[in-house]
User: Which sequence fits this backbone?
């Protein structure tokens, strides 16, 4: 049973909303407000407030996306400040059945009446009025779903034709139409991609662009790593159309080419990505110490780091941060170098390096077979759509699923095809092993130790930073990990404290 109304019904609020304001000028909500004010005048209602949510959806498709002004209006109703809500239509108020139930609850308490310009009025205090309102809400929700399905089908169709994605922000490198190149930006992208192929990093390019004052397409001065990577080696840059951020393929399994001007070729993109992958692997092996990234603690399995001499420590050491293990840097480096060269001689005599040079990366044949099967399935579905034997909602839903599966497989195939083989030392093609070993032995040879002191042997190998990096890289080609254990009571030989795990 409805309770007594707390405030006059004439105290009204106008609610306006538009799901998508492409122009950003709020014209849609302004027109709604004008029509609602005209209705208020005809009904003799006093408008005490206007609540507007611009560019915000209100259907089940938008999930729980908040509408701040709508919530403020509900609070005002509960506080007794508003007795009537005026909207252009039921769907402008909400398309969500659950929100209609909340409005019905407020109406039953005597706190609310609803008037609309084109949907009429519903007496939510009666069973028939509530039934009509909920039925209309259900149809509004269904209409929102149908609109979404039509939009998805349209977007997919545009994507298959290679038409650029509609977006508010122009892509860096192109003009506002998304098709015509912006010459200066395109030239920068080409130059940067060439740098990546030659070994530069995304971070280095970002730092230089920021120093040169290059602005993002949105006018920002900061280049985030992920944003710049997409600009330089994204699919769009190579002229490939994507759907749900994954590349599209035609019926022959070829990438769908966009209707815009590409900035780089697919081959240049592949080379740049491969260079970035190689750099990422090498980077892990670089450091300011010859054994950086190669040492692990035998107690906690954490990395060991180089530590320079200090007031209480007269020698440089490698140690884990937990303090479980500490070992002389000089002795360990010398031992590791000797062990590595011994392993090199052994493998050279067994013909290991000539065998390695013959290896080439190959994708999994099963992956290639499945990609072909998926391509055939997509062709059949699209043929069903074209001949109208399959509705768009069914055809495109299954095509989307197959595209996702094929994209994952294609990424794996690409990775298998471009993955660099394990680095090898080309002793037989560049220079004999004896000469390379002699060079590094000369670089690391120490002067005769003072018989009165062993300190000389306890110091790190005296190398310049460039040579340290080379040594670190060379060691990493053969050594996967060196496990270092605690020293037993008394003098324990370094051979007993170390375990070498070699690269296969």
Assistant:
């Amino acid at each position: 049973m409805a309770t007594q109304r707390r405030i006059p019904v004439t105290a009204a609020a106008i609610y306006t909303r538009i799901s998508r304001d492409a122009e950003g000028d709020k014209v849609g909500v302004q027109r709604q407000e004008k029509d609602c004010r005209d209705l208020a005048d005809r009904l003799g209602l006093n408008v005490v407030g206007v609540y507007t949510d611009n560019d915000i959806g209100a259907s089940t498709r938008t999930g729980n996306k908040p509408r701040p002004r709508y919530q403020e209006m509900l609070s005002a109703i509960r506080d007794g400040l508003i007795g009537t809500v005026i909207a252009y239509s039921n769907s402008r108020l909400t398309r969500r059945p659950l929100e209609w139930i909340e409005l019905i609850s407020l109406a039953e308490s005597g706190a609310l009446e609803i008037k609309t310009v084109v949907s009429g009025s519903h007496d939510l205090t009666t069973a028939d009025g509530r039934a009509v309102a909920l039925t209309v809400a259900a149809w509004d929700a269904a209409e929102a779903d149908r609109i979404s399905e039509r939009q998805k089908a349209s977007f997919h169709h545009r994507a298959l034709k290679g038409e650029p994605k509609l977006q508010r922000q122009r892509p860096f490198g192109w003009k506002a139409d998304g098709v015509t190149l912006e010459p200066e930006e395109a030239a920068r992208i080409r130059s940067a991609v060439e740098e990546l192929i030659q070994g530069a990093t995304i971070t280095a390019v970002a730092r230089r662009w920021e120093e040169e004052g290059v602005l993002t397409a949105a006018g920002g001065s900061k280049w985030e790593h992920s944003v710049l990577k997409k600009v330089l080696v994204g699919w769009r840059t190579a002229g490939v159309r994507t759907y749900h951020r994954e590349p599209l393929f035609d019926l022959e399994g070829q990438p769908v080419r966009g209707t815009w001007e590409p900035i780089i070729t697919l081959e240049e993109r592949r080379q740049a990505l491969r260079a970035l992958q190689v750099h990422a692997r090498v980077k892990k092996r670089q450091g300011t110490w010859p054994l950086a990234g190669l040492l692990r603690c035998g107690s906690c399995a954490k990395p060991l780091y180089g530590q320079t001499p200090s007031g209480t420590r007269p020698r440089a050491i490698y140690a884990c941060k937990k303090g479980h293990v500490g070992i002389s840097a000089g002795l360990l480096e010398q031992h590791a170098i000797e062990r590595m060269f011994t392993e090199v001689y052994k493998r050279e005599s067994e013909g290991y390096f000539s065998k390695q040079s013959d290896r080439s990366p190959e994708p999994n044949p099963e992956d290639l077979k499945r990609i072909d099967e998926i391509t055939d399935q997509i062709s059949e579905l699209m043929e069903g759509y074209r001949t109208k034997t399959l509705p768009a909602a069914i055809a495109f839903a299954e095509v989307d699923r197959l595209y996702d599966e094929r994209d994952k497989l294609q990424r794996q195939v690409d990775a298998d095809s471009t993955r660099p083989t394990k680095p090898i030392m080309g002793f037989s093609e560049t220079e004999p092993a004896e000469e390379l070993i002699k060079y590094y032995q000369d670089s690391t040879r120490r002067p005769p130790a003072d018989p009165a002191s062993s300190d000389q042997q306890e110091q790190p190998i005296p190398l310049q930073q460039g040579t340290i990096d080379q040594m670190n890289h060379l060691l990493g080609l053969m050594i996967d990990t060196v496990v270092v254990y605690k020293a037993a009571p008394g003098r324990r030989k370094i051979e007993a404290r170390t375990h070498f795990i070699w690269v296969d």
Notes: The chain has four domains: 11-151, 183-283, 295-357+425-502, 365-418. The chain has a mean pLDDT of 77.
